[in-house]
């Protein structure tokens, strides 16, 4: 399953010293530290943080770290030599010990607070103090900001120990959840979906923590026992980790005038977001009001496209609340996520998630997050009637823009030049009733088959199908005939050959999906010290559109075997940390 790599340019970062020349801590240098914080970052007990944008925190290293994997693709993009991933000082730093990093790297990292909103409703009770002042990065500690090849990146340790926002948690991430996030980030990137990236993954050979989990074979909704799991630190990387919920925290404080600098802190974080995530589209010299309007328009555009892309590839975020919604418009925080197998508009792998965050409800959930974003920005334009009106129009136009993005996405999945409502509606009904495997169905369709037999490879054949297989097949045939006439000529057809159309559709409809039952044995074997399956999955899933080898196809281009449906920890999970 080797892949041919693009022409390599020689790496420019071969040591931590090379990386240290590129550091630039814009967040710590331009935003406000918590005035109650300790400069040395020894700040590991839950407490309220009343003001400031960040808390300096020293990460807590995991004991006896061992290399699991790194992202070769991302290393190449950054110009990192593969060899540094296993060098002593890299392992030390990215397993949480930053006490010996070379200057001007700093020996203290930072954590940020954020507010929680779920589907557009503000919450405070998740904070142990019921004030919202103790909620935020409980176990994620950023350790570096650097400008690499002209792009600014923040590097964040997930599972890097307790912060003031840990709410009594242990500050750790287990190997299972770290492998899931590591693989998913690189898979999503390879699919062309904007996302935070994976840098490296280290596991502790000796440190374990307890987590609730499912007994083997359990079909219960909730975990039925505690298990001991190895802890890990994965490093995730993004232009920034600013979340909608983070802006909301400052918006709430400004609205309630919680302290004299509340409005100023709101403006500062919003302008920082513009610099970090929108510098290429928003001129730094513009007045704040104009920046805010442009920011809202651009975020709306990114968020709608992002969610349309999620649905294109079958991704369900699972817990799309305000603090899991990156203000830069990319996928962030892979917790109770999953990829849709049997097509179900209400697919939701997280037992605590509810229908509001289910697969095809994500456009509505996104709108709720956008609403909170809009409400947060409004006070900044209080005295500027024109700008405020523009901002309000951007808010009210969300649903239309979202729908346009969805229609364009469905049209592309179907190889059509424009969305055809009737064709899609019948397809959706058939996909649910049969039901089909979402990935296999669209991939088989991308071959532009002559009849429905190749499509039948994607059928799970549920009760509705079995009740009347001939009738269902007839409807599928009629649907296929209509689809074929639409792609061939007329308004909906694209002017290209059947071969070209197939090629184009295969760049929209991936062949390989990161199915949970592929990931489970990978993290189980990894917990026993064997990382080969993790690395194999990484290899296959970072070229999801390619046909790959026969071996890869036999192993990974498959419908979910029935023994995995309704299986605790595979088809659903209650906890993901
Ligand atoms: P999530 O729903 O996974 O995004 O988690 C909500 C918040 O809980 C996150 O922002 C984390 O900071 C925090 N959290 C989750 N697990 C832990 C843990 N083991 N220790 C400390 N904080 C945690
Ligand atoms: Mg989160």
UniProtKB/TrEMBL annotation:
Q: Domain of life here? A: Bacteria
User: Which class of enzymes does this protein belong to?
Assistant: transferase
A GO term, aspect molecular function: manganese ion binding
Q: Which residues bind ATP?
A: 136, 138-139, 158, 170-171, 236, 243, 333
What is this enzyme's EC?
2.7.7.-, 2.7.7.108
UniProtKB keywords? ATP-binding, Magnesium, Manganese, Metal-binding, Nucleotide-binding, Nucleotidyltransferase, Transferase
Per its record, the protein catalyses: L-seryl-[protein] + UTP = O-(5'-uridylyl)-L-seryl-[protein] + diphosphate; L-histidyl-[protein] + UTP = N(tele)-(5'-uridylyl)-L-histidyl-[protein] + diphosphate; L-tyrosyl-[protein] + ATP = O-(5'-adenylyl)-L-tyrosyl-[protein] + diphosphate; L-tyrosyl-[protein] + UTP = O-(5'-uridylyl)-L-tyrosyl-[protein] + diphosphate
Q: Which residues form a coiled coil?
A: none
Q: Any idea which positions bind Mg(2+)?
A: 324, 333
Checking Pfam families in the record gives: SelO
Q: Which InterPro entries match?
A: SelO
Q: Which cofactor does it need?
A: Mg(2+); Mn(2+)
Active site: residue positions: 323
Described function:
Nucleotidyltransferase involved in the post-translational modification of proteins. It can catalyze the addition of adenosine monophosphate (AMP) or uridine monophosphate (UMP) to a protein, resulting in modifications known as AMPylation and UMPylation.
Question: Which family is this protein grouped under?
Answer: Belongs to the SELO family.
Protein name in the entry: Protein nucleotidyltransferase YdiU
* Originating organism: Neptunomonas japonica JAMM 1380
Q: What is the lineage of its organism?
A: Bacteria, Pseudomonadati, Pseudomonadota, Gammaproteobacteria, Oceanospirillales
């Amino acid at each position: 399953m080797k892949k041919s790599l693009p022409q390599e340019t020689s790496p420019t970062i071969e040591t931590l010293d090379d990386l240290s020349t590129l550091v630039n801590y814009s967040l710590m240098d331009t935003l406000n530290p918590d005035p109650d914080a300790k400069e040395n970052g020894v700040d590991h007990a839950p407490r309220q943080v009343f003001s400031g944008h960040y808390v300096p925190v020293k990460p807590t290293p995991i004991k006896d770290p061992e290399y699991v994997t790194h992202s070769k693709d991302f290393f190449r993009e950054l110009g990192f030599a593969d060899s540094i991933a296993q060098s002593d000082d890299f392992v030390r730093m990215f397993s949480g010990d930053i006490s010996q990093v070379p200057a001007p790297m700093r020996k203290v990292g930072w954590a940020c607070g954020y507010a929680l909103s779920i589907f557009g409703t503000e919450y405070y009770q998740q904070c142990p103090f019921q004030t919202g002042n103790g909620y935020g990065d409980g176990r994620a500690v950023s350790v570096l900001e650097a400008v690499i090849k002209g792009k600014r990146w923040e590097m964040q340790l997930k599972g890097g120990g307790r912060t003031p926002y840990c709410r009594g948690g242990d500050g750790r991430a287990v190997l299972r959840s770290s492998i899931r996030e590591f693989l998913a980030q690189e898979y999503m990137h390879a699919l062309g979906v904007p996302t935070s990236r994976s840098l490296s993954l280290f596991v502790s050979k000796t440190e374990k923590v307890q987590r609730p989990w499912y007994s083997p074979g359990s079909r219960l909704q909730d975990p039925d026992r505690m298990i001991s799991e190895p802890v890990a630190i994965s490093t995730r990387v993004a232009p920034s980790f600013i979340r909608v919920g983070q802006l909301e925290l400052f918006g709430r404080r400004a609205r309630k005038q919680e302290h004299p600098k509340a409005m100023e802190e709101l403006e500062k974080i919003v302008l920082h977001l513009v610099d970090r995530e929108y510098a290429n589209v928003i001129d730094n010299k513009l007045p704040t009001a104009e920046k805010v309007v442009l920011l809202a328009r651009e975020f709306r555009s990114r968020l709608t496209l992002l969610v349309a892309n999620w649905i294109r590839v079958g991704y369900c975020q699972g817990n799309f609340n305000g603090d899991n919604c990156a203000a830069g418009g990319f996928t962030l925080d892979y917790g109770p996520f999953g990829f849709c197998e049997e097509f179900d508009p209400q697919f939701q792998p997280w037992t605590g998630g509810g229908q509001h965050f289910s697969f095809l409800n994500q456009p509505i959930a996104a709108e709720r997050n956008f609403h909170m974003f809009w409400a947060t920005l409004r006070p900044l334009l209080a005295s500027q009637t024109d700008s405020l009106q523009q901002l309000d129009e951007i808010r009210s136009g969300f649903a239309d823009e979202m729908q346009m993005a969805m229609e364009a996405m469905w049209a592309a999945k179907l190889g059509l030049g424009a969305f055809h409502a009737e064709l899609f509606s019948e397809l959706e009904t058939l996909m649910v009733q049969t039901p089909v495997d979402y990935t296999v169905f669209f991939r088989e369709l991308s071959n532009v088959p002559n009849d429905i037999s190749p499509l039948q490879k994607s059928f799970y054949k549920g009760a509705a199908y079995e009740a009347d297989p001939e009738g269902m097949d007839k409807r599928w045939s009629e649907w296929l005939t209509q689809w074929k006439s639409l792609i061939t000529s007329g308004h909906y057809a694209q002017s290209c050959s059947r071969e070209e159309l197939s090629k184009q559709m295969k760049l929209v409809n991936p062949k390989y999906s990161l199915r949970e039952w592929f990931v489970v044995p990978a993290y189980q074997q990894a917990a026993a010290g064997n990382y080969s399956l993790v690395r194999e999955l990484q290899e296959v899933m970072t070229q999801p559109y390619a046909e790959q080898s026969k071996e890869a196809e036999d192993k990974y281009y498959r419908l979910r075997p029935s023994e995995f449906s309704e299986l605790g920890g595979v088809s659903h999970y209650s906890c993901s940390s």
